[in-house]
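re: that complex we talked abt at group meeting.

here r the seqs, copy pasted straight from the sheet so there may be weird spacing, ignore it
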Amino acid sequence: MNAVRLPQVNPFSTRFVQPGAIPFRFPMPDGLAAITCRLNETSGWGQIIGPHGSGKSTLLASLLPALTAWQVHHIRLNTTHRTLPVHAFEPRAPGSILVIDGFEQLGIFTRWRLKRHCRRHGCGLLVTAHRSMGLPELRRTNVTLDSATELIRDLLPSGGEWVLTDFDIAARLRHHRGSLREVLFELYDRWEK
Amino acid sequence: MTDEPSIRLELAARSLAPRGELAGVFVIAGGPPTDTKSIEFSVLWRTSGKGTEDIGVVHYEAWKPDDGTLAALPNPNTFAVVLPPTPWSYNGNLVKIHWLARLRVRWESLGRTREVVKDVEFTLNPAARTSKW
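got the structure back, here u go
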């Protein structure tokens, strides 16, 4: 009988670490409810601020299912996809909320037009960005050593602890300026070796 | 206490050639749960790696109570699916291609839709010789 060599699953593959696959870890148990409440107070206007790889999109993935009172229109931007789809400027009814993940990818004029568009139609605007975009701040994300260590250990399958041998999570986190995503990419490569 | 059904999915061969036939059987121990919404069997490939991941479903079949197909589903049920020529299984550093057969049972319990999924991986490889039962 031939032994079947299946492709090996890497526990740091996108599938396991992408926003939504890992729940956002709030320091307080009622963190999600507090953000939802704050967003209702600001009529759906808000920003989630944090450096690259600090969990902004992960927080958004945890938050969006909780926005049941809103009609959510979610647009995701990144360095390779920096333009808004045409429907971003469609008229929106009050009770709608436009969610832009990666708001800083847009030019200053487009950001201004989008804010004006949402204000005119009475709809909310929730964004993530690396720096303040002048909207009410819902949360500032950052990765602590404890949260990074806990998350990495949760991702590891039984017997996979070897990948952390001589791997200083704190040092790697400092090296990547707090980007947990980059640390996870590094662990992906270690796993492959 | 759980009412989760015990499901088994077995393949006749775990290494198949392009255009080969994936044959196997699935069984739901004790039969489908009360208030079953659907039983779905699919054969698919998916990529995994550091970048954007992709998926392709090459076979999908569903049995539901609404259209009477669930009542006609044999248990155990055998299947035979002809596979496409590509993509081949691949175990690269940056990207991997996995092939799998998937059985999903969805049912209603205490007002919530629940599901149980069983995946069995196999390889699609030109070097493989498709074995018989």
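couple things i noticed - Strands of chain B lie at 7-11, 15-16, 21-28, 36-49, 55-63, 77-82, 90-91, 95-109, 112-124. The interface with chain A takes residues 14-15, 46, 48-53, 89-91, 93, 96-98, 121-123, 128-129 of chain B (CB under 8 Å).
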